[in-house]
Design a protein that fits this description.
Layout lengths: L12 E5 L17 E5 L8 H11 L2 E7 L13 E7 L1 E6 L11 E3 L3 E4 L5 E6 L5 E7 L14 H5 L23
Antiparallel strand pairs: 1-2, 2-7, 3-9, 4-7, 4-9, 5-6, 5-8
């Protein structure tokens, strides 16, 4: 497996966002790890297959699917998530659409989003058609679906017990996920 061409770390623009809880959606309030966006991380034209090969070569996360993002706000209580944008451009919502401190970035091919467990996310608009991501999770983890509804409290408590990355999922031994 080979690694894809990446923007050098010294040139990488990273956005970090702390998002407060909203009702039964914890967002970043439990572990205090920020939502991270690596802007233009993969070079233009990097295919989904090349992204998957890169993730395999780095060895921190396993690519588990290729798809768009659900249009319903949801979060994962049992794992962090790494979303690598393989094609298209979209406006997403993190934190819950009713949260006054939500984050609504426009992301595009080459961007990577590190979504901490508990952070609600959804697709607001596929801006060009064909928006597709490679969804990946720390090795050995599978994902659940939570919606901030009654009955999810025990799952949410488990977020506090999750470990964080000991290597950056994209860059390996160094990288933005290690500096939070």
């Amino acid at each position: 497996m080979s690694k894809a061409a990446l923007t050098p770390l010294k040139e990488l623009r990273v956005s970090g966002h702390q998002i407060p809880s909203l009702g039964r959606i914890p967002n970043t309030s439990i572990q205090k790890k920020p939502l991270l966006i690596y802007h233009s991380c993969f070079h233009t034209g990097t295919s989904a297959s090349a992204i998957e090969s890169h993730l395999t070569a780095v060895g921190v996360v396993d690519a588990q699917w290729r798809y768009t993002m659900y249009s319903t706000s949801h979060f994962h209580s049992n794992t962090h998530e790494v979303l690598s944008i393989a094609s298209g451009r979209a406006r997403l919502c993190f934190g819950g659409e009713d949260n006054p401190q939500r984050v609504e970035p426009v992301v595009e091919q080459g961007d990577v989003i590190v979504v901490p467990a508990g952070v609600a996310h959804r697709l607001l608009e596929d801006m060009a058609g064909g928006f597709c991501m490679v969804g990946s999770y720390p090795k050995g983890k599978s994902w659940d679906m939570c919606y901030g509804k009654e009955g999810e409290d025990e799952k949410v408590k488990g977020i506090a017990l999750l470990g964080w990355f000991n290597r950056d999922p994209i860059y390996g031994h160094t990288g933005p996920a290690l500096n939070v």
